[in-house]
Design goal:
Blueprint lengths: L2 H30 L3 E3 L1 H25 L5 H25 L7 E3 L17 H16 L3 H33 L2
Helix pairs in contact: 2-5, 3-4, 4-5
Length: 175
């Protein structure tokens, strides 16, 4: 496998690990302010799916990866880069409120800036697209199909929990 391939895979995994460190620090910050977590039982499935994604990506690409065609690589890498910039915009827009868990802090306003001004849950869209683009970038075509579907199944559980928690929070704040 090309060195660029291993470097890119390592960089993506490192990025995810750093995000988990940031999420953990933000979780502690939220708890110190009375934050409450919702839907704790489904969180492990996100960890499992994301871990299996990287395992699947590594295995499938080690079997099927062929040379990158410069035009395909440039297109997919450009989309990947745009997704990373969008991901950073999502995280910076939420600031300390950004987390990989559903945590609501009583008395705090719901963030409605950055991409959150335009639509709900933009980071979930980024993850969905990343599962596709990263898989295609590494020529892991089965992974490109399986993991976006698993992500959507998880979101069928996650988004209603998050919406209910935020709606309860908003309703409680109005009184």
């Amino acid at each position: 496998m090309p060195v660029v391939f291993m470097f890119l895979l390592g960089a993506i995994i490192l990025q995810r690990l750093v995000e988990l460190i940031v999420a953990n620090a933000n979780r502690k910050w939220a708890y110190e302010r009375g934050g409450r977590e919702y839907g704790e039982s489904h969180y492990k499935w996100f960890i499992i799916v994301h871990t299996l994604f990287f395992i699947s990506l590594a295995i499938e690409s080690s079997i099927y990866f062929n040379e990158w065609k410069p035009s395909h690589f440039l297109l997919l890498f450009s989309i990947f880069t745009a997704l990373q910039l969008f991901r950073v915009w999502c995280i910076l827009s939420l600031g300390k409120y950004w987390n990989t868990r559903v945590i609501v802090i009583p008395g705090h306003e719901i963030v409605a800036k950055g991409p959150y001004r335009f639509f709900k849950h933009p980071n979930y869209w980024v993850v969905f697209m990343e599962f596709i683009i990263i898989s295609l970038l590494f020529q892991a075509y089965a992974t490109a199909i399986i993991f976006p579907v698993l992500h959507l199944l998880l979101l069928r559980v996650r988004i209603p929990i998050e919406e209910k928690a935020l709606n309860q929070f908003s309703a409680a704040d109005q009184f």
